[in-house]
Design a protein that fits this description.
heterotrimer, A alpha/beta (about 400), B mainly alpha (about 290), C mainly alpha (about 290), B: mainly alpha, 2 domains, C: about 290 residues, mainly alpha, about 0% strand
């Protein structure tokens, strides 16, 4: 008796939950931490004001990996969400499956072509059609340094690889862990990106974007791996598996001198009541000034048939300059459109916006390999394997460069 | 049965007994350790965790993380806490366990008391299903659920759990009923009792212990499932998915004390089941499932 | 046809009717899906399943991958240690608990409860405890034992043993319960008789009790070995497959190739190998199990 009652309740509950009307958007994302989710709530309320409901589908884990598994199940079931948070080449892969919608109508009215940087459009458009609304641009070649630890070295902000090494050496001599790092594949990859970019824009492009075997296995790559080994020598022994925010905490409390991490790390510093320029400094990875490696969160719109009203409204709301500013101030990233005023951003944020505009104008804005914006997921993971194995001492630099060629080839 | 079980013919000396107690207590500590870490750190303020000793007792006790985990923690876009997800889990686990147990009992009954040609092969086929890695069924399952119109709903999840649970419950009941004297069933048949009547009157009344085993096993497996919940839960995600969202949030401050409190909330029902029904568990195992 | 006939024919059909829904579900959702996976393993599926047939290419590729060999070796190390230690601890605790222990009612649920928790719940606690910076090592240092070292989880040669440790923590209590149930099922008269014959405790257990526990050993072995092959959340929660890829297991390999690396065909091939391994363990067991029941 009870059983049937429960079943009935379950069924009714499911019907209610499943009955997302035409005026709802269902959003799959992995922004579940306090600040991010609160920022996303701004978007939700924007839509609510237009009478559009928000059906939330958060799935966190592995930088979106868990969400992508869920998405695969949903698409296979013929039940794709309205919009999905996605990164880089994942967008292209899904577009190739022919399951995405088309936002051209909105993009034209709103003039997206003029305000979104070219490098981002590469991901937001497929076959010339807008398929996604970019929310932000994270740049990943930042170094975050503890100001007092840096000052104690008596050296200024480093601007080249040699100066950077000098600073790290001085920190080591002062008894501080020079480099705070977490040994997870994507964090190792973030270091690798910066090191490769430090050896030249062209090298980054030919190795990590065009996957030229000569660049992947060449002398310069050996040098890159040698530099990785040098960086490894400044990391404490306890790094493996450490979450990036714990590494940030080491810099914040002066246990470590510097962390190489994307701009989301800034949030950790700000929440610890640190002031940019006073308590911590943000610099580009020495040797990569003027260039930016980026990743960009985008809301990819799936094919929802005829009922596009709510989807279009959401795309429009995502690209709204006020939302872009509000969201990115919280997230630590910079807006995906270049015409948003920088008034609400802190010094690091302002610097980031200026760098992005410059890099974009000078053709020095590159997708980040480590964050899935230079090569598809299969290749990215193959590169991770080699970088991580080398960083953990399984390969020497020469072998690593050879393995890199093999690993990349095996995925093509 | 329990009285007889307490009686053991083996005698041990005093020194041995002390040693035995020591070993038993040491292992108890080993098993309790993670729970201890979770409990103590769930009642500490955050700065005491990030800056201090994880095995130390809190200097300042706070119950705040518990409230936060339950009702205001940010799981998705809204700060709902675990509560709504907890309810989803209950709506899923109760029917799934009930259906699977009933099916298993009936299957076990057929396979032992109404045998027919080829029944052992059929049982073997069902049993093997207990052992397949769940990752491999994800994609085809999604396609089937989509066709049935059950994707992203609680009934869909219930179906999935019934499918992959029924092998276990059938195994338990079959082994249990196999030990039950078939003569009684025969006699009832000769008296003209039908299939369901025999089950209801003769087998069901003695099925207590094995039902406990089956329910414990299914309840913990289904409650703790993450893979199916996140893939097929849709908008009615179970509590494990919510907990994962809380713990795995990638970019942002990690409130470890809230994480631990939430973890304990998510574990409460299964813990409760084990503590309440645990004493019957060994008895149930004894009564059938581990006999050859 | 008489009424009686109809009724008895119906009676003959009811058992099969009752069994059929479960059987149908199993055929479709287990065997159908296995066939589908086998099929996928011969296609060039990447993001989503497709029908682009490529023969054995995925299998060739699989056995050429270093990560797959690492996963296989890890599985060998992990499963042998895990099974042996679990059975050892489980048997020991069961024998000890069976000595009319005061407080058995308290101890038993303590031993059993880890089975009730998933690693989504306990993963963080374990990760912390094993982490040298915040866990056991740090605590020992704070308590004054400066030279204490425990950094297995950070060492690629030892990290797999931390996975064993956590896995043993989770299931050894359950194995204990299985052995305890077996012990309680042994007829005390046999033991008494042996004691009168002057057998020592040690011999009593070695010669009589342990052989009598054979079915419990068999069940424990089968349950543990299939858990070992399926181990997934444990690795993800503890090490994420690291340091490097030192703790990759076939289940994590299969998941990452199928779902995050967009190489579904290769992932399916690894799944087929896993299934074959499980079948190789299960089939003899099932055969003997079902044979005995005649």
């Amino acid at each position: 008796m009870k059983l049937t009652k429960l079943m009935a309740t379950a069924a009714i509950g499911a019907v209610l939950a499943g009955a997302s009307s035409a005026e709802d958007v269902e959003v799959l994302h992995w922004w579940t931490s306090g600040g991010e989710a609160a920022a996303l709530n701004v978007l939700k309320e924007d839509l609510a004001a237009q009478g559009i409901g928000w059906v939330d589908m958060p799935v966190a884990g592995g930088g979106g990996e868990a969400a992508m598994t869920t998405l695969r199940a949903r698409v296979t079931a013929g039940d794709a969400p309205t919009a999905v948070q996605m990164l880089g080449f994942d967008i292209k892969d899904w577009a190739a499956e022919g399951v995405l919608g088309n936002l051209n109508e909105v993009a034209e009215v709103e003039g997206w072509d003029a305000v979104v940087p070219e490098a981002l459009q590469f991901f937001s458009k497929y076959d010339g059609n807008w398929i996604a609304a970019p929310v932000n641009v994270h740049s990943t070649n930042w170094v975050w340094m503890n100001k007092s630890v840096l000052d104690a070295t008596g050296l200024g902000e480093p601007t080249s690889w040699e100066e950077f090494i000098a600073v790290l050496d001085a920190m080591k001599a002062n008894g501080v862990t020079p480099l705070a790092h977490g040994g997870q594949a994507w964090q190792d990859g973030t270091l690798f990106d910066a090191v490769v970019l430090g050896l030249g824009d062209d090298f980054y492009k030919s190795a990590l974007i065009d996957l030229d075997p000569d660049a992947l296995g060449g002398d310069k790559m050996v040098e890159a791996f040698e530099r990785m080994a040098v960086l490894r020598s400044y990391v404490d022994d306890n790094f493996s598996g450490r979450d990036w925010n714990l590494a940030s905490a080491m810099v914040i409390n002066g246990e470590a001198g510097a962390q190489m991490m994307g701009d989301w790390a800034k949030g950790e510093f700000l929440r610890a009541d640190q002031v940019p320029g006073e308590d911590f400094v943000c610099i580009r990875f020495p040797g990569t000034q003027g260039a930016v490696t980026f990743n960009s969160d985008q809301f990819v719109m799936f094919d929802v048939g005829e009922n596009t009203t709510a989807q279009y409204a959401m795309a429009k709301a995502v690209m709204d300059p006020v939302f872009q500013s509000a969201f990115n101030v919280v997230k630590g990233s910079v807006p995906a459109r270049t015409d948003v005023p920088n008034t609400d951003f802190d010094d690091c944020g302002k610097k980031g916006m200026a760098d992005l505009a410059d890099a974009s104008a000078n053709g020095r804005l590159f997708g980040s390999m480590a964050h899935g914006h230079s090569v598809p997921a299969a290749v990215k993971n193959a590169i991770y394997d080699v970088v991580t194995a080398h960083f953990n001492g399984e390969f020497d630099a020469q072998t690593a460069a050879e393995e890199l060629v093999n690993a990349v080839e095996s995925t093509l | 049965m329990s009285a007889a079980a307490q009686e053991n013919a083996v005698k041990t000396g005093r020194v041995y007994r002390v040693l035995i107690y020591l070993v038993l207590l040491l292992f108890a500590l080993f098993y309790l350790l993670p729970l201890f870490v979770m409990l103590t750190n769930s009642v500490k303020p955050l700065d005491e965790i990030t800056g201090g000793n994880m095995l130390a007792l809190p200097q300042k006790w706070t119950i705040e993380p518990w409230f936060k985990a339950w009702s205001t923690a940010q799981i998705g876009v809204e700060p709902t806490g675990l509560r709504p997800y907890f309810i989803n889990s209950l709506l899923m686990v109760v029917p799934a366990v009930a259906i699977t147990t009933v099916l298993g009992a009936l299957n076990g009954y057929v396979l032992t008391k109404w045998r027919f040609r080829g029944d052992t092969i059929l049982f073997g086929l069902m049993l093997f299903s207990c052992f397949i890695p769940f990752q491999i069924v994800l994609i085809p399952m999604a396609a089937v659920l989509g066709k049935l119109g059950l994707a992203g709903s609680i009934p869909g999840l219930i179906l999935v759990h019934v499918v992959y649970g029924v092998g276990f419950s059938t195994l338990y009941y079959r082994n249990y009923y196999a030990a039950f004297p078939t003569e009684l069933v025969r006699a009832a048949m000769i008296d003209g009792a039908g299939f369901f009547r025999i089950f209801w009157r003769i087998l069901l009344p003695v099925s207590g212990p094995i039902t406990v085993v089956s329910v414990i096993w299914l309840f913990t497996n289904i409650w703790n499932d993450f893979l199916f919940g996140s893939s097929f839960g849709g908008t009615s995600q179970p509590v494990t998915v919510a907990l994962n969202n809380l713990v795995q949030s990638s970019q942002g401050v990690k409130e470890y004390n809230v994480h631990f409190a939430a973890a304990i909330f998510a574990a409460l029902p299964t813990l409760l089941v084990y503590i309440v029904a645990g004493r019957y568990f060994v008895r149930g195992l004894m009564a059938g499932s581990v006999k050859g | 046809m008489t009424d009686q006939d109809l009724k008895s024919r119906l009676q003959n059909w009811i058992p099969k009717l009752v069994l059929s829904p479960s059987l149908a579900l199993t055929l479709v959702f287990v065997y159908g899906f296995i066939l589908f996976t086998v099929y996928l393993s011969f296609t060039n599926s990447r993001m989503l399943p497709n029908t682009d047939f490529v023969g054995f290419a995925n299998y060739e590729r699989l056995w050429g991958l270093r990560a797959w060999w690492v996963a296989i070796k890890n599985l060998a190390v992990f499963s042998s240690l895990y099974i042996v230690i679990c059975i050892g601890i489980g048997l020991m605790l069961a024998i000890f608990l069976d000595q009319k222990i005061r407080g058995e009612g308290m101890l038993r649920p303590i031993y059993l409860y880890p089975m009730a928790l998933s690693f989504i719940v306990t993963g963080t606690a374990w990760k912390w405890f094993l982490d040298p910076g915040i866990g056991l090592e740090n605590t020992m240092h704070m308590w004054g034992w400066e030279s204490f070292e425990f950094r297995w989880i950070k060492d690629r040669n030892y990290a797999i043993y931390t996975v064993v440790l956590a896995a043993v923590w989770q299931t050894s209590g359950f194995v204990m319960a299985m052995f305890l149930a077996g012990l309680r099922g042994i007829d005390n008269e046999i033991l008494k008789a042996a004691q009168i014959d002057g057998a020592s405790n040690w011999n009593l257990y070695r010669r009589i009790v342990i052989p009598l526990l054979r079915p419990a050993f068999l069940s424990a072995f089968v349950i543990l070995s299939h858990l070992a092959v399926k181990s997934y959340d444990l690795v993800i929660a503890l090490t994420g497959g690291g340091p490097g890829r030192a703790t990759e297991l076939p289940a994590t390999f299969m998941y990452s190739y199928t779902f995050t690396r967009n190489q579904m065909g290769t992932g399916a091939a690894s799944a087929v190998i896993m299934l074959m391994t499980i079948a190789a363990i299960m089939t003899p067991y099932l055969y003997s199990e079902l044979k005995e029941k005649r």
